Amino acid sequence: MESVYESQSSQAAEVNHDEKLRNVGEGEFGCSHYRRRCKIRAPCCDEIFDCRHCHNEAKNSVEVDVQKRHDIPRREIKRVICSLCSTEQDVQQYCTNCGVCMAKYFCAKCKFFDDDESKSQFHCDGCGICRTGGEENFFHCNKCGCCYSNWCKGFHRCIEKAMHHDCPVCFEYLFDSTKDISVLHCGHTLHLDCLKEMESHFQFSCPVCSKSICDMSKLWEKLDQEVAATPMPEAYQNKMADQGAVFFTLFKESKAVRQMWTW
Ligand SMILES: [Zn+2]
Ligand SMILES: [Zn+2]
Ligand SMILES: [Zn+2]
Ligand SMILES: [Zn+2]
Ligand SMILES: [Zn+2]
Ligand SMILES: [Zn+2]
Ligand SMILES: [Zn+2]
Ligand SMILES: [Zn+2]
Q: Which residues have beta carbons under 5 A from ligand 5 (an ion)?
């Protein structure tokens, strides 16, 4: 009897020990983009960076010869370097040498690491990338080829590959943009900030199809007042749709209606 208890308690101690080990350095490593306990080896230039954004910023800066500028092919990342013991190894969540968890959120498909789980990351197979904002708050539309906030389920206007194009204002590719995206009533999409920029210049029509998007400033004002109530009251949703306005734009502070979502 005694020996059974003994082995059980030593097993428990081991688990606790492992757990402690895994959590070492949590939140203490990373860059301005992500908290993570590993660095990545870029397959393109064979150099080491904190994250793909760090790579892309460094390799597309004005100091770099135009011919040599490039983005990292993120899916091709194969090797990571543990920040605690500096061991280089294949992409995985736990260091093969010291056993530390290199990030609480880990996606093997995207080769993505992030210690900050407050973003509620999730991998969408339809999109083929990781998004943020909580899986339960989004649905994937196969026709549009992207995820939308549940908030517009049932009344979003399908546009083939809705997000698979550049923002018509700033020309950044929208699908994997890390900024908030707005979906206009016509179904066209652009950055929330770019939409606000248009509004500040009194441009109230969709830059793609020229359909009216009405006076946004009043809308923002109302939304600011309503923002505490999430999801938006139903009457409100209808009202906006009736106006032919931007029927869901994803505003500041209002988590449930935040649209973008990508890392
Ligand atoms: Zn590179
Ligand atoms: Zn970075
Ligand atoms: Zn290690
Ligand atoms: Zn993923
Ligand atoms: Zn999706
Ligand atoms: Zn759709
Ligand atoms: Zn834009
Ligand atoms: Zn449009």
A: 124, 126-127, 140, 147
CA of 229 to the centre of ligand 5 (A): 26
CA-closest candidate to residue 249, choices 202, 188, 203 = 188
DSSP structure string for 191-250: EHHHHHHHHHTT--B-TTT--B---HHHHHHHHHHHTTSSSPPHHHHHHHHHTTS--B--
pLDDT at 147 over 50: yes
**Measured in whole angstroms, how far is the alpha carbon of residue 214 from the centre of its chain?**
29
Helix (H) or strand (E) holding 147: strand 146-149
CA of 244 to the centre of ligand 5 (A): 26
Indicate the pTM of the whole model: 0.70
CA of 127 to the centre of ligand 5 (A): 4
Kindly list the protein residues that place their beta carbon closer than 5 angstroms to ligand 3, a single-atom ion: 82, 84-85, 87, 95, 97-98
Confidence of residue 1 (pLDDT cuts 50, 70, 90): very low
pLDDT in tens, 78-92: 999 999 999 999 999
